[in-house]
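Below sits the subject:
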Amino acid sequence: MGRRRSKSLILIVDDNQELLDNLQLMLETNRFRVIRAINGKRAIKILENSPTLPDLIISDIIMPEMNGYEFFKEVSNNPQWFHIPFLFLTAKSSKEEIRFGKLLGVDDYIVKPFKGKDLLAVINGKLNKVKRSEIIKKNVNESIEKLKEVVKPSLQKEDKKEDILLFMMHWDDVYGPQLNWWYPIREENKEFIENMGIQLFQTSVFLFGQEKITKPEGILINIEKIGKMCYMLFDSCVDPKKRGKQQQYMLTLLAPKINYFESMKVKKLFMDISEKIKNNNPWSVEETWKAVIEILSREALNL
């Protein structure tokens, strides 16, 4: 008999005890494990002390001691927690509040009252996306292990800006992933970037499906083997010469650290670049790199 698959763990945060009870009952009835807190401050303590991190967080906004926005800021700025999908579940239903929540980068915004089946659909969708990300991360780290000998110690710690790398790959129907450009341009980095880009592109195409990369798909992962964070945006543009009439490509940022807020800004920057690529409009790789440096140099969004 096969080993029984473990249940996903969900942290629910709300100062309404009755809602906590009902939400916990609904989730446990649907085979989720649940931990709970009555405000953001208590939730932070749970995250700090729990031997197992939750697979997803559901939080109210209006709570004493630490509200939902402040709690989300703490989660997003912690490199151990920022990858956890985060849902706001709240009665604050104005367009401005919803727009603000989405601006922060919250994964979804569920307004009370809600239907249980709708909440479950959102939860399962977010958890499935995380599973795909974990597979990408695992495959990339395994592949990078084979490329260790290619990494050259040319980037010095005191040369911080040079640790931040941008590159673009495209899919060639004959040769597979091909390197378009990389920046900063250092010839000694080319082999490493090219090999890693191939691994990233092939792994992600395998998971998303090459024919499905018809709209922007972004992902942020931690590549432990080289001590860097990686943000990738996959997209495609019309090309009558290519199979399926589409040219798939990948814009990638490598940096020692990228927090969730920064990744959202990088995503917007990459999507702007992608639109220029699709419309054959001019743009500068060097200016894009400078814009990324500025994003990573700023403090996180103050709430």
Remarks:
- Residues 94 and 111 are 10 Å apart (CA to CA).
- Residues 1-6, 148-159, 299-303 have pLDDT under 50 and may be disordered.
